[in-house]
Amino acid sequence: MTTMTAPPRRLLRSTGAVLLGFIAVVALSLATDQVLHSLEVYPPWGQPMHDTGLVLLALSYRIVYGVLGSYIAARLAPRHPMRHAMALGVVGFVLSTAAAIATIPMDLGPSWFPIALVLTASPCAWVGGALHR
């Protein structure tokens, strides 16, 4: 008699894939921010940044890092890589929404920047997942 066992659950690997993608996005974003603050490209931490060019620079590398993080999540996924990439997109969307709600009243920069982070979270995740193919 042959017994069939269910395939092993890969919840830990799936969680790890999304978590590592998230850590990559956060670490790269903060490291780049720190370098640009240290080089005095950005104003000191805690001071508003209203220069459109600098805010576009921040948005541009965050988009690249969002795609990269989603690629990492897809690449490390045990199966269904696009689902993992999009799961990271959902995490990014939720956290960016919460950050936008918290920071817009603080006038740290133009309101469109945190809104743009919310709006780009899912497309970046999709691109990162699609690049895995």
Strands, helices and their partners?
Elements: H1 11-38, H2 52-76, H3 81-103, H4 112-132
Which structural class best describes the helix and strand composition? mainly alpha
What series of H and E elements makes up the topology? HHHH
Strand tally is 0
Largest sheet: none
**Which spans of ≥5 residues are poorly predicted at pLDDT below 50?**
none
The portion of residues forming beta strands comes to: under 5%
Helix content: over 70%
Rg measurement, Å: 18 Å
- Which word captures the global form? elongated
Overall mean pLDDT = 94
| Count of alpha/pi helices | 4
The CA-CA distance between the termini, in Å, is 40 Å
Note the main attributes of this structure.
single chain; mainly alpha; 4 helices; 73% helix
What does this molecule look like?
The chain has helices at 11-38, 52-76, 81-103, 112-132. By secondary structure, it is an all-alpha fold. The mean pLDDT is 94. It is elongated, with a radius of gyration of 18 Å.
